[in-house]
Amino acid sequence: MGSKKKIIGVGNALMDVVVKNISEAILEQNNLPKGSMILVDSATSARINIETASFERILAPGGSVANTIHGLASLGVETAFVGKVGLDKMGEIYRLELEKNGANPMLFKSETTPTGVAMALVTPDSERTFATCLGAAIEMVADELTIDLFRDYDIAYIEGYLVQNHDLVRKALEMARKAGLTIALDLASYNVVEDNIDFLNEVLEPYVDIIFANEEEAKAFTGKEPEEAIRLLSKICDIAVVKTGKTGSLIKHADHEEHIGIIGKKCVDTTGAGDLYAAGFLYGFAQNYSLKTCGTIASLVAGYVVNVYGARMDEAIWSQIRNEISDMIKQ
Fold first, then answer.
1. Whole-angstrom distance, CA of residue 45 vs CA of residue 131
2. pLDDT tens-digit readout, 146-185
3. In whole angstroms, what is the distance from residue 181 CA to residue 159 CA?
C-alpha cells in the first residue's frame, strides 16, 4: 500500500498526556474553554497534572502534525517529521517512537528546555480540551529550517499551531515552495485562527495548496457557515476541506465539491480525529485518488481513531484499516 510520493511534516514535537473522563469543573477552575487548545506555562501544566493525577491517563508521542505523520507512516507512506525536543528522556522516547513507526525523525534539540507536553483533557461527552506547554517545541526558529530538509519530499504538511511564530511558518512555506513541494496546512484551532487572521490572509493564497479546517476554524477565518466557508476557502487554496463533525466533511476543488459522511464508529475520544482525517486524505492524495476517495479514506481513518483514547492506534487496528482501504479501492 505504499506511495511513491513522500510527505514531510513540520510541527510541534509534544508528548501527549490523554486524561480520561475528567470533570468540567477542572476545566473551569483552570480557565480552559471546553474544546479549545490553550497554551499554558510549565507551572500551570504541573498544577493540572497534579489535579488530574487520580484519573486514568495514556502517554504517547504527539503534536498535531506528528500524529498525522504517524498515521501516514502506518499507511505505508515514506515520511519525515521536523520538530524540536529537549535533551531529556521524553525527547529520546519521542525520537525512538518516530523511528519505530518508520518515520524519519528530523529533530532539533534544545539544551536548556524540556520536551513539550500537551495534556488532552477528555470529558465524559468525549470532547477534548488541550492544555499545552510547548517547552522545547516553541524554540524551533526560522534559521534552523533549510531547503535541504524538504528536497527529497513531494508534499509538506505544516502545523497550524505553529502560526503563532510567523517567521518560522513563513520560512517553512518558502523553503517547501522553493523545493517544489505541494503544501498542506491545518488551521489548528479557532482561537489560533482568530489571533493570527492577518498573517493567514497573507500566506494562504501564495503558498498553501490544501487547507484543512473544522467548522469553527472555517467560521473564525471566513465568518461563514461550512457551505459558504468552503467556497471562500477554495478560492484561496487549490483544495479546501471543512470537517463538520457528526455530519462528515466538505471538500472542494475548483467547481467540484464533495460531501463525505462519517464512517460510523463509537466515539469515546475525539483526540486526533482531525489529525488522522488529514492522514487519510493526504494518503489518498499521494496516490492520486479522486477527491471523493481521499475524503472517504480520511473519514474511515478518523472513524477508527475516535473509538480509542488518544491519537495513536495499535498495529492490529491499522492492519484492519489498510485492508478496508484495499477493499474500497478494488470496488
1. 7
2. 999 999 999 999 999 999 899 999 999 999 999 999 999 9
3. 16
Nearest in space to 62 (alpha carbons), one of 329, 284, 312: 312
| Domain definitions of the chain by residue range | 3-12+62-113+140-330
Chain centroid to Cα 101, Å, comes to 17
pLDDT beyond 70 at 222: yes
Flag whether pLDDT at 241 surpasses 90: yes
Residue 2 binned pLDDT confidence (cut-offs 50, 70, 90): very low
C-alpha cell at 254: 475548483
Phi, psi for 117 (deg, rounded to 5): -130, 130
For residues 223 and 251, is the Cβ–Cβ distance under 8 A? no
Domain boundaries 3-12+62-113+140-330, corresponding CATH code: 3.40.1190.20
Q: Could you tell me if 158 and 129 are in contact, meaning their C-beta atoms sit under 8 angstroms apart?
A: no
* DSSP secondary structure letter of residue 21: S
Which percentage of the chain shows pLDDT scores above 90? Answer: 82
CA distances from 194 to 205, 210, 217, 218 (A): 18, 20, 8, 10
Q: Which amino acid is at 189?
A: S
Q: How far apart are CA 21 and CA 52, in angstroms?
A: 10
